[in-house]
Amino acid sequence: MTKKISLITCGLLLSTNMAFAADSIDEAFKTGTVSGDITGYSLKQDNKGGTKDGKLTALTGGLSYETASFMNLSAKASFRAGHVFDGTKFNNDSLMTEAYVKYAQDAFSISVGRQAIDLEWLGDYNESVVAAITPTADTSIVLGYVNQQAAADEDEIGKFDEITEDGAYVLDIKYSGIKNVELNPYFYSAVDVAEFYGLKASYSSDMFGAVAQYAASSEDVSTKKDGSIAHIELSTSIAGLSLATGYIKTDKDAGTASISAYGDNISPFDNGANTYSADAKTVYGSVGYTIAAVELGALYGETDFGVNSEEKELNLTASYSISDNLGLGLLYVDYDLEGSSSSDYKALSATASYTF
User: Fold this and answer.
1) What span, in angstroms and rounded, lies between the C-alpha atoms of 236 and 213?
2) What phi and psi, each to the nearest 5 degrees, are found at residue 341?
3) pLDDT for residue 64
4) In angstroms, what CA-CA distances link 250 with 20, 267, 310, 339?
């Protein structure tokens, strides 16, 4: 299926070039935009219980080119490449992360090919067909079909793999017609794997925010039980200080089952290994502070799961914007799994990124 979608993309690009006058196509390419980044990343991980310590030092770069729109058509291509100087090699040295053609009007667009997607339970880069419809000013609808998925960022470059044998479909609706409120119902169907659905409700004002969400799955595989997850978070911010606290609960027998298989946005942790496990109950709190170009953050949470099992995690973050294009970031993680010292670790990672 990779070749099929890639060939569709190439075919559309070719037909576009043949369908319109050369001068018009030339102008669309000449006025296109180039963007990218060069990112350095280093990780040192102190593992407990005799487990070998982890480390990774890598340099990655991304490059994107997007044409201007002509006759409502545009195209984009993006690549990411990297080299590991110390640590486990990436699965790939380079990856074409995006390659799509898009047709867009005021209230409708459709894109075909490799593209980045960020929905509640679908993320990373996907070989897909995505249609976005805006029937009213306060309603947006996304319809999509996804066949393959890959991840690529500062600490990994993967490859596109099938998410299921026959792909997955998604319907995502957002309604913001109520003041300060957004309602987000959604439905996913992974063919012969599972169907899952949910509703996310968000409230946001100048000083206060709240999120409540529930999702449940109907598993198609007879040996798998249906899963579910509920989440609530309260937050506030004033004078550069932000505070948040939340609670996450999963199904007693199956956890989230297939719901979190293709991406997620609920778990706030860097690790959160058991946030989506069976009978998991997670309580967390965070604090953030911004002063000038410096952002500081702290997150702590505990997850009770299974039979008398517990994990604790602390995340500390710091970022500094040297300029509009150059930024530095630090992340410290302290992870503790009760009764399994070999899983415990402390890690410190640093990121430097220049974007253009």
Assistant:
1) 18
2) -65, -25
3) 98
4) 54, 12, 14, 22
